[in-house]
Design brief:
Length: 421
């Protein structure tokens, strides 16, 4: 049975794995701070729950051989055999569950001991392993290293209206975390903003007070005993405090205060203002740069209409465009800004074309015909040994082909010759 559980839990050839890969997998398997704080008791409970599921899954199986009667007679019964234990352990932890595999490795001897020697006397595997052997869990209603009783008693911790911190584990503070509406060290009274609607020996019903009441004796707005923040008690009623009319409001510079029920809001002043007493340009304490006072309002200065103290947009070919509280200089129509200067917007000069730059496919065919015609005429002239009839035919053919080609290009041809192309 040596390394029984290890053989089930470690299916990878770790010794053959490169060291870098090993450390990478190790850090990937390290739980996050939240998951690392998962109670060891919870991990143990999950392990034992999966173990019990494995027992249910294998309870009707056997060794798988052909002669089960002989196997049960000569070997240990399958129900308590090492074979079944291995099959159960295969499904206890997933390969990626580092906490479960680590706990299973640490509890290997305990699992084997329970399986072969203790399960008859201690059938509750969770209690035997997690509470008694590993001391990771406590009975319900208790907490801490020594399993102290939770406030309110183990049978009904926190009066049944809250949760004992660390309940059922070897950790926690034992303090009661009460449900909404309940309070006190034992969650046995109503919390702030709630009142006792009903109570008997076993139950307490807490109902919500009127929204402004911190403590109350009933649901009415006249039953307030203490007010929530932002309200003040007057004749057993909670009335709103206007923080904006007192020193209680704390808004930044260039903000104004708006009172709300039980609180207040800070909102930004208008762009035209430096300090304000409310919303809009008519509530400014002082006008911002780019604005001027006109009665009670701060209005925009139109710098483009000459209202500015100094000239604007003095660059060549520039035009002024007014904006809210300022202006901007743009190039006049027909001009674009290049390297900070407004220049005339005109397309770049196109390079002059040569004589053959835009020749068409049809013209190429004509040129080919002229070339081959000239060759044929020249050969015919040579064959006639200078006969004037063939010479005349040659010259006429060349002239005809040249005229046909140049008829559509005469203007460009003349222009090309004149310009020397």
């Amino acid at each position: 049975m040596n390394d029984l559980i290890s053989s089930v839990k470690m299916p990878f050839p770790w010794k053959k794995t490169p060291l870098l890969v090993f450390f990478l997998l190790f850090f990937l398997w390290i739980p996050s701070p939240s998951s690392s704080q998962q109670e060891p008791c919870q991990s143990c409970r999950s392990l034992t729950d999966n173990f019990n599921k494995g027992l249910e899954r294998t309870q009707r199986e056997n060794f798988g051989g052909g002669n089960t009667a002989w196997e049960e007679e000569k070997l240990a019964k399958y129900a308590n055999s090492e074979t079944r234990l291995l099959e159960v352990l295969e499904g206890v932890c997933s390969k990626s569950d580092f906490a479960c595999n680590q706990l299973l490795e640490q509890s290997e001897e305990h699992v084997e001991r329970w399986w072969f020697h203790e399960q008859q006397q201690h059938p509750d595997f969770f209690q035997w392993l997690c509470m008694d052997a590993l001391r990771l869990c406590c009975p319900p209603g208790t907490y801490g290293p020594d399993c102290h009783t939770c406030p309110g008693g183990a049978q009904k911790p926190c009066s049944g209206y809250g949760q004992c911190d660390g309940d059922g584990t070897r950790g926690g503070t034992g303090l009661c975390m009460c449900q909404t509406g309940y309070g006190g060290p034992f969650c046995s009274e109503c919390g702030d903003g709630y009142y006792e609607a009903a109570r008997n020996d076993s139950h307490l019903v807490c109902a919500e007070c009127y929204r402004a009441c911190g403590r109350c004796s009933g649901p009415e707005d006249s039953s307030c005993l203490r007010c929530k923040r932002g309200w003040m008690l007057h004749d057993r009623r909670c009335i709103d405090i206007d923080e904006c009319g007192t020193d209680m409001a704390h808004c930044r510079a260039n903000q104004f205060c708006i009172n709300t029920e039980g609180s207040y809001e800070c909102r930004d002043c208008a762009k035209a203002c430096i300090g304000c007493m409310g919303a809009g340009p008519s509530r400014c304490k002082k006008c911002n740069k780019g604005y001027r006072r006109d009665g009670v309002k701060c209005l925009d200065v139109n710098e483009c209409a000459g209202e500015a103290e100094e000239p604007v947009c003095t660059g060549a070919n520039e035009a002024c465009e007014n904006t809210d509280g300022s202006y901007r200089c743009i190039c006049a129509e027909g001009y674009v800004r290049k390297e900070g200067i407004c220049e005339e917007d005109k397309p770049p000069d196109a390079p002059e074309k040569g004589f053959f730059d835009d020749i068409t496919d049809d013209e190429v065919v004509v040129l080919q015909q002229m070339f081959f015609g000239a060759i044929i005429c020249a050969l015919a002239t040579l064959a006639a040994k200078g006969d004037m009839v063939f010479t005349a035919i040659f010259i006429g053919a060349v002239a005809a082909m040249a005229g046909y080609w140049l008829s559509e290009r005469s203007d460009r041809v003349l222009d090309g010759f004149i310009k020397g192309r």
